[in-house]
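YM 10:42: Aconitate hydratase sequence, as discussed on the call
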Amino acid sequence: MPLNAAQKLIHSHLVSGTPEPGHEIGLTIDQTLTQDATGTMVMLELESLGLDHIKTELSVQYVDHNLLQTDEKNSEDHLFLQSAAQRYGLWFSKAGNGVSHPVHQAHFGRPGATMIGSDSHTCAAGALGMLAIGVGGLEIAMAMAGDPLYVEMPQIWGVELTGELPDWVSAKDVILELLRRHDVKGGVGRIIEYHGEGLRHLTAMDRHVIANMGAELGATTTVFPADDAVHDYLRAVGRADDFTELLADEGASYDVEEQIDLASLEPLIAKPSSPGNVLPVREVAGERVHQVVVGSSANPGLRDFAVVAEILRDRQTDDGVSLDINPTSREILQDLTRGGWIFELIRSGARVHQSGCLGCIGMGQAPAVGRNSLRTMPRNFPGRSGTDEDSVWLCSPETAAAAALTGRITDPRDLDMAYPAPELPEKFSVNDQMLLPPLDESEAREVELVKGTNIKSLPTFDPLPEDIELPVLLTVGDNISTDEIMPAGSRVLPFRSNIPKIAEFVYIQVDDTYPTRAAESDGGHAIVGGENYGQGSSREHAVIAPRHLGLRLVVAKSFARIHWQNLANFGVLPLEFVDPAAAEQISQGDVLSFSGLHQALRSGDTVTARIGDEPIELRHRLSDRQVEMVVAGGRIPYRAAQAEEVAHAGTQDSDIPEETAKPAQPEG
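YM 10:58: structure's back
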């Protein structure tokens, strides 16, 4: 049977389960990626697991998110992460080296490999023909310990690209077009695989832009073939020998099919405050702009900065605009300097910042209230910028540059100039001086973890009771993001390794009384949500912190994939309404009662809750393995219990087997 590229990647790494949509499968993992906003938890989880040395082919710890050092917290976390990388056998990318995704693609990306990352935009690596999936930190820790990744087998969504992009339209507009068509839930339960003759006109970095923002569609990941464009890229970064061709077989089919004619696209923009709120730039032209920010993993390539410099060449930015340039790596900064583009940006009035995520995660560059900020970033969830009442728009570098010149949202096709196509070097700069390789295992064992006063050990969580009554402390609507559950930004993220402290910020953008009410609620509580609950970031703080405050159960109409998995990993039961209309029956303050919960979870996919005498039918999508995890209080206590059983039985095997997977129920 002919296989598409995604199926080839899955079949070559499959260790358990049936690779049919809706079934849980287990995959071996070759590489992992962690960054500093989520990596601290991963390293604390490795400590909790008692791991001696990682078992993956390659793992890299990046420092790219929390670069502002306004007090000791971020600096101390960076020291902790470096010591943990040395102790457990990871590569370490120092602060200022660059954003994890483009740096990883340049130095470690390998066609045909699997990778998971504790960052939802890990899917960007699909640009090179990798199966790269964003997951919660605990999944990373378990992969480093030698466990497979367990995931519900997605549908494969084949998107055929035809034609060639016209002038003033670039890769960002391709993914914005898919978001315009399908909104932020369109990719849930799917892998997006791009194919077709239109690929001939997209470079590996163009594909990175498109793959990166597959996360905004809710997709499990994005896969491009490893073809001549990938070979060209690896040759340009000095790694041609790492190329392996990966193409869909002739006659391969897809579960879902779609077509995009690249030649028909026009400049697009996502309005505040959702990546799915997309429309043509021409329809909002004329809106005043206060800030333009260029950079982030969503537009990280040399071309993305160079084209802005060429548009601004010999011109000045509008007096009312702050233009911020965030180079995505030191290597990009080197090439921008060699090509003369940094000079053009500075001369035009741009502010050039260090290499990192910065404004994308709310670490500086927070816009003024009520003023439009245009950004080449992947997300514009409310408050993510660091300003609670922000107005952030997402666009291409071309549209960003046009706004910087005119002071208004402007269709770049209306600029009085020919489209400038920057001439890029055949070889990109390679600078690995800030990438520290792993220590020898014998040396690694001598390393002690460096823990500052803000670094607290991972909390322990108790098992799920068989019978339980839970007050509903919060009800929320559709598309609640992890940025709303657990805010990012310079005020909150420095406490990422201090769960008791960061828990004080849970849901403060939605209801600032929640942390206090939750802390005062004895015996646990529940939250009720709408569609696509927990979309966005992979940060598991959005589960661990409310779990620390007593969250035991979330009932929603549907869940975003990573957050759903994170809930189960930390013993929070994710349930869905059998009848979505039943959500209207539950109000804040109601008490949900469950009896014989363990038996119900183990015997089927439905459970009954009661509000007084009124029953509400709920369902779960957990596999047998996940049910036992949740009942045990989470994956760490579950694994510890398994190890104890093996030790009691006198088994010497250090690789603890997990239960055979069963089909998971498809999302409704």
